[in-house]
């Protein structure tokens, strides 16, 4: 009798081991499937394809370089990769037009692109916009040189701000309560004019640097700190001056002063900076000039200067793409990158 009970206990123990083993295997398989399903999906033809992580995918596909034209690990922003040189393979078809990739962020997997052509000249902002608030950013005759407003501007840590200092004296001034005419146009009329596919790819709360940039900085870190002092969140912006500087492979052109005063930085700009166009076009950034409400822009000869907000210059829209886009193409002018969401 005791022998039967012993056999019974042994069989029960074996059953438990088998059940536990089966459960463990099933749990492992479920976890593996769940992990796999976050990175794989089935397309319409039944093929297994990698689920998009746009920024990381693009860096993996393009590869990085340390000299010549190509995609560089950025020296000033962690997890950012920047296209530099005369003609890197950063061409994109977007909205049925030719655009180019500025940079890739692998922290949030976004891709930042700029139209490879200039829209018609328009003012950055004018006095008729009604933004005047007795601040050093606005003037009855000149308009305002701040891209956003007190409801769309944030500090370095993305906390809302209603005042902003000017770098040359540290005094903080009240921000305008309305968006600039440029922001209103780009995020209204222009955005609504994009085709439906293009609009669906735009990250609607992208972050752009709009801090006040002093004209005689001779250090890129100083430039970056000033630009980072204010950030704007929205759909469509422009480049900031540091992005123009960082697109160059000329080692002499690594700060705002260089592109302001050094002829080698802007003479023959096309030989080392793909952003160069023989035209005038706005950036996002206000100059720290105390009275003229100036905004930085790129001059047709290739150097950076600043002009009053009511002046008219060309516009090169910039958008940040959703990290969900999937990438095709190789980025050459004849085989540009294209994007889709599904």
Helix/strand-derived class?
Answer: alpha+beta
Shape: globular
Radius of gyration: 26 Å
Domain count: the total is: 2
How confident is the prediction overall: mean pLDDT? Answer: 84
* Count, helices: 8
- Low-pLDDT segments, ≥5 res: 1-7, 25-51
Biggest sheet details: 7 strands, antiparallel
Estimate percent helicity. 25-40%
Q: How far apart are the first and last residues' alpha carbons, in Å?
A: 68 Å
| Number of strand elements | 23
Beta-strand share of residues: 25-35%
Description of the structure:
This protein has 342 residues and is α+β, with helices and mostly antiparallel strands. The chain is 26% helix and 27% strand. The protein has helices at 2-37, 54-62, 181-193, 196-201, 220-228, 241-246, 256-261, 263-266, and strands spanning 40-42, 48-50, 70-73, 80-84, 91-94, 97-105, 110-115, 119-123, 138-139, 143-144, 153-154, 163-165, 172-174, 206-209, 231-234, 236-237, 281-286, 294-298, 304-308, 312-315, 318-321, 326-328, 338-340. It is globular, with a radius of gyration of 26 Å. The N and C termini lie far apart (68 Å).
């Amino acid at each position: 009798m005791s022998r039967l009970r012993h056999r019974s206990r042994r069989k029960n123990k074996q059953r438990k081991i088998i059940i536990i083993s089966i459960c463990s295997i099933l749990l492992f398989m479920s976890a593996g499937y769940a992990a796999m399903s976050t990175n794989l999906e089935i397309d319409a033809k039944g093929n297994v394809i990698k689920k998009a992580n746009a920024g990381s995918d693009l860096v993996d596909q393009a590869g990085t370089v340390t000299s010549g034209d190509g995609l560089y690990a950025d020296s000033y922003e962690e997890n950012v990769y920047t296209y530099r040189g005369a003609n890197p393979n950063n061409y994109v078809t977007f909205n049925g037009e030719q655009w180019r990739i500025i940079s890739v962020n692998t922290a949030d997997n976004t891709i930042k692109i700029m139209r490879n052509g200039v829209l018609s000249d328009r003012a950055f902002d004018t006095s008729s916009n009604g933004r005047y608030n007795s601040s050093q950013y606005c003037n009855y005759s000149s308009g305002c040189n701040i891209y956003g407003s007190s409801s769309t501007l944030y500090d370095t840590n993305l906390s809302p701000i209603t005042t902003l200092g000017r770098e040359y004296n540290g005094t903080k001034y009240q921000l305008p309560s309305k968006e600039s005419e440029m922001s209103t146009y780009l995020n209204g009329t222009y955005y609504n004019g994009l085709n439906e596919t293009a609009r669906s790819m735009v990250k609607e709360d992208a972050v752009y640097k709009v801090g006040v940039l002093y004209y005689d900085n001779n250090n890129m870190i100083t430039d970056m700190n000033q630009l980072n002092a204010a950030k704007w969140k929205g759909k469509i912006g422009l480049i900031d001056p540091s992005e123009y500087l960082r697109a160059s492979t000329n080692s002499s052109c690594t700060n705002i002063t260089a592109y302001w005063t050094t002829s080698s930085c802007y003479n023959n700009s096309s030989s080392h900076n793909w952003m160069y166009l023989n035209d005038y076009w706005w950036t996002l950034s206000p100059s720290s000039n105390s009275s003229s409400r100036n905004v930085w822009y790129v001059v047709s000869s290739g150097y950076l200067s600043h002009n009053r907000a009511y002046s008219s210059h060309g516009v090169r829209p910039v958008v940040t793409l959703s990290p969900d886009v999937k990438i095709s193409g190789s980025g050459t002018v004849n085989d540009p990158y294209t994007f889709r969401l599904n």
